[in-house]
Amino acid sequence: MNKKYLLLMSLFTALMLFFGCNAEPQVKTLKIWDTMGPDELVTLQSIVDDFQKLHPDCNIEIEKVPFADAQDKFELAVNAGQGPDLFRCEIAWTPLYADLGMLLPLEDKVEDELLDDFLAVPLAYNYYQDQLWGLPEVTDCLALMYNKKLFKQAKKAIPALKSPDQWADYNEFTASSVLLNQWMKKQNPDSWAMFLRGDPYFVQPFVWAFGGELIGEGKSILIDSKESMDGIRAFMKLKDELKLAPAEIDFTNDYDNALRGFKAGRIAMILNGPWATSDILSGEAFDHSKGGNPADFGIASFPKKVRSGSPVGGHNYVLPKNCKDPDLAMEFLLFLVKPENQVRFTLNNNLLPTRQSSYDMLEAMSEDEFPNKALVMAFKNQLDQANVRPVIPEGGKIYKDFTVHFQKIFSGDLSVEEGMHRVAADWKKILNED
Amino acid sequence: MIFKSKFSAYFYILPASLIMLVIVGIPLLITIGYSFTNVSQKNLLFDSSNLKKKQASYQNSASTLEAWSNENISYDASLKEAVGNAMLKRWLKKPEIKAVFELSLQDRQQKMMMQAEEFSEKAAAVDTQLEKRTVRFVGLKNYIRILGTADKTFWRIFLQTVIWTVVNVSAHFSIGLLLAICLHKRLKGNVIFRTLLMLPWAIPSFVAAFGWRYMYNYPTGLINNTLNAIGLPAINFLGDSSWVLPSCILVNIWVGIPFMMITLLGGLQSIDLALYEAADIDGAGAWHKFRHITIPMLKPVSSVAILLGIIWTFNMFNIIYLVSLGNEAIEKDIFVTYAYTAFRSYGDYSGAATYAVLILSILLAFGAYYVRMLPKEEK
């Protein structure tokens, strides 16, 4: 009796196991590692749901990976033969991982006509050594954010003052900023016309505006060129000579300090990207419920000296080399970057799409359908004048060196010339390693 | 009994020691091994298969072009033939290439052979690239690079690490001892005090670090507001490179006191009260009792606690990293944070491994010296 029972049980278990194992391959799974924030993930999930409706035989798992740990996790996993089938890869990481052979080339998997629809600058970060390694999902750039109300009020007192949408060039920007600063100081001695950060990412618009460049063709180092240094000197002049911005800042808290001041209306201008717009609109100066007005939030392109410029950021999706089902991964990726899906991220999360047809769709929408249209289109305008940062695997390293020396320049411990020569010398070492 | 009693003890600890050997010994050996190689992000994570495919593609392109140069192939036919070879296809799609197919046979032969040669050269260049991307034994090169006199970074960081460790541990010990003595007296509300004083230890270090970061904010953090209120100028704690390390030290002192306090309190409670009573009878004052009873009786506990404290503080990564995140000044770095930068930001794995070996050697040498200095009965 007992033996019979045992036999039955084991038979049952064996059958279960057999069918259990057998049933598995029927469903195709796609594992995505994603570094998005919680609000963006909601949008992504809805796109995934739509995809699964079209492909009921697929199971798409989104695994949330914190942005800060993503590189460590990804490198370890891929090196161990594991990892995701699709990875949201920051644009600067893409050439690095392509160089390390950790990605699958997408050549022949994407139609040329489709590639032509992508904006040139975000797409450029997906090419490394003449090969395509990913598709840009979202892009961003820095633009000049300003408080329209402060400009309007100051203009009443000082008619000569011009607001950012009227500036013809960089000189008008400084002239008006000086006037604005004087007026603001009279109202509140704790206020500033602008806030300048100690992170060199935020000095790049100055470098480009003055005709400078970080790294040019063939890995030529241009950060210590006359034009680049002029840009950095102009940056320093704003805070040290013209006293338009705090001369000394806290390098660990400066991002928050800039945002907080701008949101409270104590700072009239900051440089920031589209990711910050939702937060800014919740500030006292711009939120209806806190006595502010969202219409006072203005975005303009960085003023022109010889040109306007801004560093472009964003995220690509790439197929890691251990991708189990490249066809499915590619199919989902192409679905994800469809204009109608990109636009969902714009409407829900104020993110900038990467395709011209997405912008065409947005352009056709009314202000009611798309309340932040003016903001997004202002960023697009800056994006059209943006520059490609060097697409090299050493992006992270050169940036680290730049930061170390730039902060010394910012604090006045190093002259612009000395600091930039040191950066250039370090970069030379890094770029000539192989 | 199969084993003699002496062996049975070893037998019992065998599983634990094997596990220890695996989880401590193997990574340690690998790290030491790495410090003698050129291992880096560039070669350790490198997978050559893409590059080899590319090389094959270059070779294939070169041979196809050579074949084409001898026959009168049309542009469209060549496009069809190039379908499997993305590299060749890309070359064909360049705007100026279509015209090449309309050239006279001799000219196009020349053009195609030139391009074929370029492809072959590129294929050959892959070999040197692959050669550079291999992990090699480099002997003491990493040690010479780091300890060498070319730039004095190592010694600078060494000095900062020593300052960091000495200031922290002496503050931990002196403040911890003071608090332990206060708590040792049986006062009302003792338990509440003890719990409160344990807080810095109980809070996760990243929470503590972020809290302090906001208090240090310049010019409007809690500390600077207080300084302003009492008429002192604000200090740029985390922006001024000479203030960063002291600011981090202060946080770490705050975090590290409870451990020292609790350890010393345990030591105090283990001292036999009869000793104090005997001293009372001899008419000794409070200072004499402290100097001649408390200090010597605490020594076994305190010497171990100090050794532990030094080792922990020497390798304390979290506080500096989290409190000063965003400030890249080298003035804030100690060995562990600097090694992390080498590893994470520069992908210099062998350099980081060399730093790890150096840290281990310094601590081992110091520990051996420290233990030898202890009186015999405490070893």
What can be said about this structure in brief?
The complex is a heterodimer of chains A (434) and B (379). With 434 residues, chain A is of the alpha/beta class.
Would you give an account of this structure?
The complex is a heterodimer of chains A (434) and B (379). Chain A is α/β, with parallel strands linked by helices and 434 residues long. Chain A is built from 18 helices and eleven strands. Chain A has helices spanning 2-23, 38-54, 67-79, 93-99, 112-117, 120-124, 148-157, 170-187, 204-209, 226-240, 254-264, 277-281, 326-336, 339-349, 356-363, 373-384, 395-411, 416-431, and strands at 28-34, 58-64, 86-90, 127-128, 131-132, 134-141, 143-147, 192-194, 267-272, 297-300, 312-318. In chain A, the strands form three sheets. Chain A has a five-stranded mixed beta sheet. Chain A has a four-stranded mixed beta sheet with strand order 8-9-7-10. In chain A, α14 crosses α15 (356-363) and α17 (395-411) packs antiparallel against α18. Chain A is globular and about 95 Å long. The mean pLDDT of chain A is 91. Chain B contains 18 helices and no strands. The two termini of chain B are 34 Å apart. In chain B, 28% of the residues are buried. By secondary structure, chain B is mainly alpha-helical. Chain B has helices at 5-34, 41-44, 49-70, 75-81, 86-93, 97-100, 105-132, 141-147, 153-184, 190-202, 205-215, 222-229, 241-269, 273-281, 286-314, 318-323, 335-344, 349-373. Chain B is elongated and about 120 Å long. In chain B, α3 runs antiparallel to α7 (105-132) and α9 packs parallel to α13 (241-269). Classes of the chains: A alpha/beta (434), B mainly alpha (379). The A-B interface holds A 72, 75, 78-79, 99-103, 105, 107-108, 129-131, 198-199, 246, 248-255, 257, 321, 393, 396-397, 400, 403-404, 407-408, 411, 413, 430, 433-434 and B 41-42, 44-51, 54, 86-87, 90, 129, 132-133, 213-214, 216-221, 236-241, 323-330, 341, 344-347.
